[in-house]
Design goal:
The structure holds two protein chains of two kinds. Chain A is α+β, with helices and mostly antiparallel strands. Chain A contains 30 helices and 22 strands. In chain A, the strands form five sheets. Chain A has a six-stranded mixed sheet. A five-stranded mixed sheet of chain A has the order 6-8-9-11-10. In chain A, a hairpin with a 2-residue loop joins β18 (763-771) and β19. In chain A, α18 (443-460) runs antiparallel to α20 and α19 packs antiparallel against α20 (477-505). In chain B, 44% of the residues lie in helices and 20% in strands. The chains are: A alpha+beta, B alpha/beta.
């Protein structure tokens, strides 16, 4: 049944479902800590209940079924009929994951793939398995929902050999004889009388589909078990049909297929006797449905309706037409008229209509159809009209529409709404007074806006150059001043725009954090460890790109902590620690950076082991092995190719360790530090910029060329007299603020032949830079301004140049190369 | 124009009901739990209430009881529930509901009830 409207409602449904699924997951997690908290249980129940209720507005039986089972299960837990267990939580989490998958599927395809049905049933069964004895729960209030069918209720069997055969005579001769032959060969055949409930559509059933999918289906027919109501009482949302089916599949398969509909299906074993002729008078399903076409006299209301349909078709034909719609209208009118004439038994007129329609389509003119209509104004006098009462629901819909078009009485109005609300829902999206407080925007649109603003920021930098030219080259001071004035205005607006777009792109770290409760739970269970996860500062915000690229390193670190950091409960007990380990993930904003700390109270990292491993793997030489301190040793964990886990587990990977984390973090201009104390625990600290879209860069000059150094690396700029620079061993140093700082000349780092030139006072310009915890001085020729720019990564064959992190376009059109301090150090 | 207050914690259901009612010319206000519904009912008067049962903070029964006992409004209220149990239905009437419908409510069904209850059927 697709008559329910979709788009805006569906969108709403999906977004609400996602929220509900998320809080369901959270609540399940909370419940593990306090299993009998009635408040959490109530909220959990309500989440699932709401999800189920919402899904019932659509035709997603696969989803509704699972949710219904989940709701029943939680209802039992809530009422104390079932105790909460980890297994129960696992099943429910699985079910919620499955619903999440279905949601994504609906989002992309607007429907659920038919293949999901069996998964859904397995999921439902898994949930129902957990329920205590189903027979007793049948009377329990929770299980007695409107469609709270009980799974293993045996399907009723009518198998009394004495009772007469069901209406087998409707089977056409050809099928009957074949069936008889099969029976003689010993096959067991079944007669299935499936009478769906009137409300079945609202329970998420799809009777036609269920009937068609009947295993071993040999023959079937659709019928109206009860006389159809008159058109005025016709309800298109009720299922008024039933099915008679003949199948040769094993009984178990049939029971399995109809196990959710035990009260609506009657399965009878067919006795060969019944198939032996004599009874078959009718053949073919078209006549078989004649039970529905019981002749009744046409009420005044029906006659009125019939006239209205004709009038409506007339009106449609006379509409001022846009050519594009013309063909569709003609087709629609022809269809309605064909159906109508069929319904009243005037099958002979069918050809007339078709001819009229073809003519109309060919000439693009309505005359013939109109003429036909005029000629049939008095069709209701025909005897065939008497059978209109048995018309199919297509006519009912046409009736409702036609009636709605021609002015409405109260009863008809209801029909109008039913037929029209697709349209209404679409309109709602634009003119609803229910203004949303937040707006969902495609990420690509924001990225585009971001790029445009980036370009604007760069382009505006051309104005000062222009002002300079106006003055210097054209001698127009006045113009120069004006340009500068304009520039400062544009500059301010551009800055604000940049700020605004940054705000839009800000995202809370909870985007990444929210997956941890589940992750930690699953992993720790797998490892048999008890872990309490503490999340802090989830509302801390940073740029979308930063947050997104944070996910992988964080997951890696958390996995490491769980796998290698936190000990098994018995080990912890032996060490005098609480059995439940504690893992804290904390985010906070510090100045213009986001700092994320992952702290565990586990094993800690033993520097001795690290040193030994590093030496064994050739990461450090013997001299270093002797020299390095404990902190440095612990830092070796970030070196490529070092994995210290004594057992390589399937969780944290093989040999790819923290070096991956480091490179991922450094890629987004972040730093990562580690502190660890053997036996006490480990703390890893990731510091990230709030935003990476615009980089503040200090421009330096060397050998007549300009280079950029990211401000994140810059500590300070100093000028040092040449006499104070000393050579210690092979390297140059200077004492700055009481500290010995190694100095490196840019020429040696980049392989430029010329050497740094001192200024008139014989002082050298030194840019103090920092990478990680290392500080050194970069000897250059001079400092220029600090600018904000959009860094573009180096492309093509330039991408191999690791000394540069990227390039940027300057206001005067020249290209600035940005130095990658970490790589050149 | 008749005013209807929809009280339901499910945004999807609110949207569904709202669309049906607005398409038939009703003015619709929404509340997502009993407390908010009471606040709205104190602020302004409604011709009809459409109330869900299971809601956070204050459920549908509680809301109707308050509405009636505090004499905030005696206008008709339709309880909308997913449970078909007679027990729930009786509880709804006891709390002060005038009708009881099972979700999902079909558009035609909802409108005919709303018309009837808000006194339009006689006009």
């Amino acid at each position: 049944m697709n008559s329910l409207p979709t788009n805006p409602l569906l969108e709403q449904f999906l977004s609400e479902s996602r929220d509900l699924l998320e809080s369901t997951g959270k609540k399940l997690m909370q419940l593990e800590e306090v299993p009998n908290d009635q408040d959490i249980l109530n909220e959990l129940f309500r989440c699932v209940h709401t999800l189920k209720g919402n899904s019932g507005l659509f035709t997603f039986p696969e989803m509704t079924r699972v949710l219904h089972a989940g709701e029943d299960l939680l209802g039992m837990v809530r009422s104390g009929n079932l105790t909460y267990s980890r297994e129960l939580a696992d099943r429910l989490l699985d079910a919620m994951d499955f619903v999440g998958v279905l949601c994504s599927e609906i989002e992309t395809t607007e429907k659920i793939d038919a293949s999901r049905a069996s998964e859904s049933q397995q999921m439902t069964e898994a949930l129902r398995m957990l329920m205590p004895s189903l027979t007793s729960s049948d009377d329990a209030p929770m299980a007695a929902g409107p469609n709270g069918r009980v799974a293993n209720d045996p399907i009723r069997t009518v198998d009394d050999p004495g009772s007469g055969p069901p209406s087998l005579r409707s089977i056409p001769d050809a099928v009957r004889i074949a069936a008889l032959e099969q029976c003689r060969q010993g096959d067991q055949l079944y007669w299935i009388a499936y009478r769906p409930q009137r409300e079945c559509f609202f329970h998420g059933d799809d009777p036609l589909n269920s009937a068609r999918q009947t295993p071993g289906l040999m023959w079937g027919r659709v019928l109206a078990p009860e006389p159809l109501p008159s058109l005025t009482e016709f309800d298109t949302y009720s299922c008024l049909i039933g099915f008679d089916l003949l199948a040769d599949a094993p009984r178990e398969e049939l029971d399995q297929h109809y196990r959710y509909l035990p009260d609506q299906v009657e399965i009878t074993t067919v006795r060969p006797m019944w198939l032996v002729s004599g009874q078959g008078v009718e053949d073919g399903p078209s006549k078989a449905s004649s039970a529905a076409n019981r002749t009744r006299s046409l009420s005044d209301a029906d006659e009125d309706a019939f006239n209205k349909i004709l009038a409506a078709q007339r009106q449609i034909l006379l509409l001022e037409d846009r050519p594009a719609w013309h063909a569709g209208r003609l087709k629609s009118v022809a269809d309605v008229l064909t159906n109508l004439s069929q319904a009243v038994g005037e099958t002979s007129t069918r050809t007339d209509i078709l001819a009229a329609f073809e003519d109309a389509s060919a000439t693009d003119h309505n005359t013939l159809l109109l003429a036909w209509l005029d000629g049939h104004k008095n069709m209701q006098s025909n005897a065939g009209l008497q059978r209109l009462a048995g018309a199919n629901d297509e006519i009912a819909i046409a009736y409702a529409e036609a009636a709605a078009d021609t002015g409405s009485s109260l009863e008809i109005d209801a029909g109008k709404v039913a037929a029209d609300d697709g349209l209404k829902f679409c309109r709602r999206a634009e003119d609803t007074g229910n203004v949303p407080r937040s707006l969902k925007v495609d990420q690509a649109k924001i990225d585009r806006l971001m790029n445009l603003i980036g370009e604007l920021l760069v382009e505006k930098n051309a104005l000062p150059y222009l002002a300079q030219r106006a003055e210097v080259q054209f001698g127009n001071r006045e113009l120069s001043r004006e340009i500068r004035g304009q520039y400062s205005v544009i500059n301010r607006i551009a800055d604000e725009m940049q700020d605004a777009i940054m705000q839009v792109r800000m995202m809370a770290v909870s985007f990444v954090f929210q997956r941890f409760p589940r992750l930690v739970r699953d992993i720790s269970r797998k490892l048999g460890k008890e872990v309490q996860l503490v999340l802090e500062g989830e509302q801390t915000e940073a740029d979308k790109n930063i947050i997104e690229s944070l996910a992988d390193p964080l997951i890696h670190i958390v996995r490491n902590s769980l796998d290698h950091g936190l000990e098994m409960p018995e080990v912890r007990r032996a060490r005098g620690k609480p059995e439940t380990g504690r893992l804290t993930i904390r985010a906070a904003q510090q100045a213009d950076r986001v700092v994320i700390e992952i702290i565990d109270d586990g094993n800690g990292i033993d520097p001795a082991i690290i040193k030994r491993k590093a030496y064994e793997k050739g990461l450090i030489d013997e001299a270093t092995l002797e020299r390095i301190g404990d902190q440095e040793a612990v830092n070796l964990i970030f070196a490529a190719g070092l994995s210290t886990a004594e057992v390589v587990s399937d969780l944290s990977g093989r040999g790819v360790g923290m070096d991956v984390v480091r490179s991922a973090v450094e890629k987004i201009n972040g730093t990562v530090e580690i502190e660890s104390e053997v036996g006490k625990g480990t703390s890893i600290r990731i510091s990230l910029p709030l935003s990476m879209a615009v980089t503040q860069v200090m421009v330096i000059e060397f050998d007549g060329q300009l280079f950029g150094v990211p401000m994140d690396n810059v500590v300070e700029t100093v000028r040092v007299p040449r006499s104070e620079i000393r050579a210690i061993k092979q390297s140059l140093t200077a004492v700055l603020r009481g500290r010995i700082v190694p100095l490196k000349a840019l020429n040696t780092l980049l392989g430029i032949p010329s050497i740094p030139t001192p200024n008139a006072n014989d002082e050298l310009a030194i840019l103090l830079v920092q990478t990680g915890s290392e500080v050194f001085g970069l000897m250059v020729d001079g400092f220029k301004e600090t600018i904000g720019l959009i860094q573009k990564p180096l492309g093509g064959f330039l991408s191999g140049l690791s000394a540069y992190s990227g390039s940027a376009l300057m206001g005067d059109g020249s290209v600035l190369m940005i130095l990658n301090i970490r790589e050149i150090a | 124009m008749k005013r209807v207050l929809i009280v339901d914690d499910a945004a999807t259901v609110r949207m569904y009901h709202r669309s049906i009612l607005e398409s038939a010319g009703y003015m619709v206000e929404e509340a997502w739990n009993g407390i908010e519904a009471l606040e709205k009912s104190l602020e302004s008067s409604f011709d009809l209430y459409l109330v869900d049962i299971n809601m956070p903070k204050l459920d549908g029964y509680g809301f109707l009881r308050e509405l009636r006992q505090q004499e905030i409004s005696q206008r008709p209220a339709i309880m909308v529930s997913t449970e078909a149990a007679a027990r729930d239905e009786m509880a709804a009437y006891k709390a002060g509901a005038n009708a009881y419908l099972i979700k999902p409510v079909r558009p035609a069904q909802l409108l005919s009830y709303v018309r009837l209850m808000s006194g339009e059927a006689n006009q």
